Automatic annotation (TrEMBL):
The keyword Transmembrane helix applies. The keyword Acyltransferase does not apply. Its main location: membrane. It comes from Paenibacillus chartarius. This is Carbohydrate ABC transporter permease.
Length: 270
């Protein structure tokens, strides 16, 4: 049984490592070398950085990274503020219609996103947000309710006696939220920031649909500059993918402990 487990682990490692390996070795190949060699063979030299220079020039990667940074920063700020406020109101107070609101949030997570895209696209156009950075920002802030459930799990573990003692001292609800609840939600906020950053950074669908203008390209859509209808420049595509992968790999390696601790600690009551 132990031998079978090791075999399965080796296969799992191979499945995970194999695609990045193919991308890495082909990112350093010249165009003629890529056509004459196999996709799994090593390049003639790992010092060929010409592909990366061409990718930065033709795909305007500097502008793509800037647009991506703006979208991620504003979207995360909106998600954190709105998510904590909604979770605080729902998790701390009892009011008429609370169950209906929770049911609406649950229904939003069940409905497939693709089925609502025609209506969402019409709304974005009517608001004159098409081909602007505001379109993905609004969609990333309002279309995901997962952060509300993450924050609510943490709020349930915060003793309500803290709120009562603050009220006795004359603190308002806004001050209780900002000075007490919000700082205690920092583990959930760290988890949300990491997950949302990776999700927005890798998303191709929303930027491609709502920002087709080339000047508004992001890192995920920049790869499409090297793919046509009948052919694709795979050595440049691999170089672009490698450039895009580096920030996410570094982010995940540095902050992976916060991802796991944030998800698990919110699901277990103390």
């Amino acid at each position: 049984m132990t031998g079978l487990q090791y075999v399965l682990l080796v296969l799992a490692v191979f499945v995970v490592i194999f695609p990045p390996y193919v991308v890495f070795v082909n990112a350093f190949k010249k165009k003629d070398e890529f056509g004459s060699s196999g996709p799994f063979t090593l390049p003639e030299s790992f010092l060929n950085f010409e592909n990366f220079r061409i990718v930065f020039e033709r795909a305007h990667m500097d502008q793509a990274f800037l647009n991506t940074f703006i979208i991620i920063t504003v979207s995360l700020a909106g998600n954190v503020v709105l998510g904590t406020m909604v979770a605080y109101a729902i998790g701390r107070f009892h009011f008429r219609g609370k169950s209906m609101i929770m049911g609406a949030f649950l229904a939003a997570t069940i409905i497939p996103t693709i089925t609502t895209q025609v209506a969402v696209f019409s709304i974005i156009q009517s608001l004159h947000l098409f081909n602007t950075l505001y379109a993905p920002i609004i969609l990333y802030i309002g279309a995901d309710v997962v952060q509300i459930y993450i924050y609510m799990q943490f709020i349930k573990n915060i003793p309500y006696e803290l709120d009562e003692s603050a009220m006795i001292d004359g603190a308002s609800l806004v001050r209780i939220y900002w000075n007490m609840i919000f700082p205690l939600l920092s583990p959930a906020t760290a988890t949300l920031v990491i997950l949302k950053t990776i999700n927005i950074y890798n998303d191709l669908y929303i930027p491609y649909l709502y920002m087709p203008k080339s000047q508004l390209g992001v890192v995920s859509t920049s790869i499409m500059r090297f793919a046509g209808i009948n052919q694709a420049e795979w050595n440049y595509i691999c170089a672009a993918i490698l450039i895009i992968m580096i920030p996410t790999v570094i982010l995940y390696l540095l902050l992976q402990k916060y991802i796991f601790s944030g998800v698990t600690s919110g699901a277990v009551k103390s």
